[in-house]
Amino acid sequence: MKVKILLVEDDTSLGFVIADQLRSDGYSVSLCTDGSDGFRRFNSEDFHLCIFDVMMPKKDGFSLARDVRKINETIPILFLTAKSMMEDKVEGFKSGGDDYLTKPFSVEELQLRLSALLKRVNIVKKTEDEPIIFIGTYTFDKLNFKLSHERFDKILTNKEAQILKILCKFKNQVVPRDIILNAVWGQDDYFVGRSLDVFITKLRKYFKEDEQITISNIHGIGFKLEVNI
Predict the structure, then answer these.
(1) Which pLDDT does position 86 carry in this prediction?
(2) 162 near 155, Cβ under 8 Å?
(3) For 34, 73, 140, 182, which has the most beta carbons within 10 A of its beta carbon?
């Protein structure tokens, strides 16, 4: 399996050049051009490493990294930026970054930094790539969006699957509403909030075959997938 990299760079020309180079190096690359789209993509697929530009529309690289760290504490994050001031580098590391590459940079330097960061990926790749999640007496096939039980089979929609994957990452923990909304819709206004409530109601119905599974609404905070087995 190829190492999957999420590249978020608002300079389309530079993003294309970097993505093309990384693909020629044998990586699988998903390219996004703003932070909000990058966060949605991060939550719709499994990646091994992230490369974030800092100055981006909708959500800057530091904010994107902080959101990523709320749901994944281990994935390596490399920042690309024209900024070289010490306070910017400090902010990058505080927001969850693992390394910092200042533009302009050489292809060789990028390759070396990625190789260094990916040494950690080999430790966590096996667990991240597991396609099947066990939820009580159900199984959830992340790749095919299939939720199964001995008395129930359902192919989930893309948004249903994304929401369920996030809830599963934090099984028996509260997930803030804004994290789910930004991850799935890229925004957290009133209207998408109502849509989230509808999807949560649907997911609750899908799990009715197992009384030990509940999706609780923690008022004013978010949701909690509880499996009491």
Answers:
(1) 65
(2) no
(3) 182
For residues 173-199, give the mean pLDDT.
86
Q: What count of Cα atoms within 13 Å lies in the side-chain half-sphere of residue 16?
A: 2
Residue numbers of the domain that contains 65: 4-128
- Residue showing tokens 């993509």: 41
Alpha-carbon distance of 154 to 160, in angstroms, equals: 11
Indicate which CATH number applies to the domain containing 104.
3.40.50.2300
Q: Cα dihedral sign for 155, 159, 163, 165? A: positive
* H/E element, 225: strand 222-227
Given its phi and psi angles, is residue 87 left (phi above 0), alpha (psi -120 to 50 degrees) or beta?
Answer: alpha
Condensed to tens digits (0 to 9), the pLDDT of residues 46-60 reads: 899 999 998 888 889
Q: Distances in Å between the alpha carbon of 81 and those of 60, 101, 156, 203?
A: 11, 7, 38, 41
DSSP 2: P
Shared-domain flag, residues 172 and 115: no
Q: Which helix (H) or strand (E) is 212 found in, with range?
A: none
